[in-house]
Amino acid sequence: MVDRIYSGKAPQTKLPKGAIDTQMHAYLPSFPALPGGPGLPPEPLPTPDDYLETMKWLGIDRVVATQGNAHQFDNSCLLACLKAFGNKAKGVAVVTGETSDAEMESLAAVGVVGARIMDISSGAMGLDRLEEVDDRAAAFGWMMAVQFDGSNIVDHFDRLAALKSRWVLDHHGKFFAGVTPDSSQIAALKRLIDKGKTWFKFAGCYESSRVGGPDYADIAAVARDIAAYAPERIIWGTNWPHNAAKRAEDYPDDAALLDTVLGWFPDDKGRTLALVDNPETLFGFERAR
């Protein structure tokens, strides 16, 4: 059991109007975990209602809900959560090369705008199926959320550079081997960004930091570098409900984490781009301003 906190003292950083959290999962008790996945997060189950309370606490106006690994290829829980969130939400689902046009259209009709590649922790679709997912996403104008060990990004560069869809490198790149702004992996990421279809997501810094919190100095150094290099290509997410936290003492303070991560932007303009303008472009939200 994890003692999650959904409200508290407001963060010091005031989010701009229309702020979008682009990385979270939610669960409902009527959707059990499926074989092949990592199981549901520890009880009590973090539901859409719990997240809506968190949104009010942090000042988030809109959200992108992502299919959780626990449900593998069955997007039913995601769709139920999107319904609970209403018109403030978009979704990122799991699809394959065999997903029919009719199913793609059905998913799009309820707010799904993206497809997920997850090459870590029992993800349903790995990098071995990148191109087939890209074909489906591109055919419907969707984006892709791509998560893998970014330590190997140089090896995958040509495949990533050839993607037809807009795509985001998830979770600060998950550079598990450790990188600095001068590393070859970051040079490769910048080259991908320069090609015009790549975004970079600030979310889940604690999952790949080699030095840990509260400052996550290794992740911060790269984040500051990318935010200065391409402020128009950064998006941000809470990574709620922090599924990697299996014990109460490991669960982060969302307000404090928000202040830390958003402090890596050079100025308010950069934060507004990452929280409003950039995700509007990537996920197709209506303009807030």
Fold and architecture overview:
With 289 residues, this protein is α/β, with parallel strands linked by helices. Helices cover 33% and strands 13% of the residues. Strand 5, helix 5 (157-161) and strand 6 form a beta-alpha-beta unit. The longest helix is centred in the C-terminal third of the chain and has 16 residues, at 268-283. The termini are far apart. 46% of the residues are buried. The model has no long low-confidence stretch (mean pLDDT 96).
Q: How far apart are the termini?
A: 41 Å
The mean pLDDT is 96
Integer-rounded radius of gyration: 17 Å
Shape: globular
Q: Which strand order spans the largest sheet, edge to edge or round the barrel?
A: 1-2-3-4-5-6-7-8
Number of helices: 9
Descriptors:
single chain; 289 residues; alpha/beta; 9 helices; globular; 8-stranded parallel sheet
Helix/strand layout:
Elements: E1 20-24, H1 48-58, E2 62-66, H2 76-85, E3 89-93, H3 101-109, E4 112-118, H4 130-139, E5 143-147, H5 157-161, E6 167-169, H6 184-194, E7 198-202, H7 217-229, E8 234-236, H8 254-262, H9 268-283
Parallel strand pairs: 1-2, 2-3, 3-4, 4-5, 5-6, 6-7, 7-8
Short description:
With 289 residues, the chain is an alpha/beta fold. The protein is built from nine helices and eight strands.
